[in-house]
Amino acid sequence: MNTITPVDTVSFDGREVSLLDQTLLPGQQVRLIIEDAAQMHEAIGMLRVRGAPAIGVAAAFGLWLGVRGLSDDLPRPEAEAKVEETRTYLAGARPTAVNLSWALDRCAAQALATGSSTAQLKQALLDAAIQLRTDEEATTRLIGEHGADLLTGLSGVLTHCNAGSAATVGLGTALAPIYVASERGQALRVFADETRPLLQGARITAWELREAGVPVTVITDSMAAVVMRQGLVGAVIVGCDRVAANGDVANKIGTYGVALLARAHGLPFYVAGPTSTIDLGTPDGDHIEIEQRGAHEVTHHGGVLMAPDGVDVFNPAFDVTPAEYVTAIITEKGIIYPPYGPGLQAVKA
Ligand SMILES: CSC[C@@H](O)[C@@H](O)C(=O)COP(=O)(O)O
User: Which residues bind substrate (predicted)?
Assistant: First the structure.
């Protein structure tokens, strides 16, 4: 198969920052021009741009958008205060994926260390966002190269949510090894959990795999056990939003259940993500803040009420899979095996 062309999730054309509005996939492919930090905050919060690495890059451009209108004559300390205010504002758009604050911190630090004028600060923020996008794209290719080795010989894998190209600015995390395996000529079918409540698996994973020519079968989340039982998959591979220092992994709600099913069926459960998703400052999964989202995501489907009006709803966007269920963590720097503490520290060093 041909080399995969990544989805253009977040880009800068030399003039404007634009996003693919993922809430409209797969029916419509609409690009949104993002003009200021408030629009970027809204886009991240509404999941127009989503997936841990992609929201980091989006936020990095949002940081620049937040200051680009400042006068070059503004005293530098005032411009720096605006950077800090915008950084904090954008970091609050979603709490669970550490890539968001990591990207903002990285770009702010680079820019604050550059030059002495406000004009230099603004240019440095743009340069930092562009560089981050470039680096993150390269990172996904490396994750794919490392992870593809783990999939050798398999004919089917199961994934949950969308940790593909649409969730990054490159090949994805969980899907990157699948794309690289496909590029190497391996016939691999992906079973994509639809991923309630927002259907990232059915809407986005299935869409991007089909665009890339990778065979994909959509299943409801409740069918994963049967797919495993029938021997249709030889491994599970998912992405991650935050990896704690002990190897506990936060990812899309439902991932924990899939990990338990994989263990029950003797299947490896792989987690793929850039080292920027590893947060050594969080000791374990109990310390990861889990985003709670609105009830309407559960009670409504396509605008239609699917549950009694006003019923109580529990809607955590993510869950934590304990490290003991994770077979290996695939990063751009290589594959980490249990016990995770030393390996995670080594790749972050
Ligand atoms: C490479 S993306 C890894 C994770 O961010 C992904 O699996 C996920 O949980 C995305 O959740 P979302 O709420 O769609 O942003």
Answer: 50-52, 94, 200, 251-252
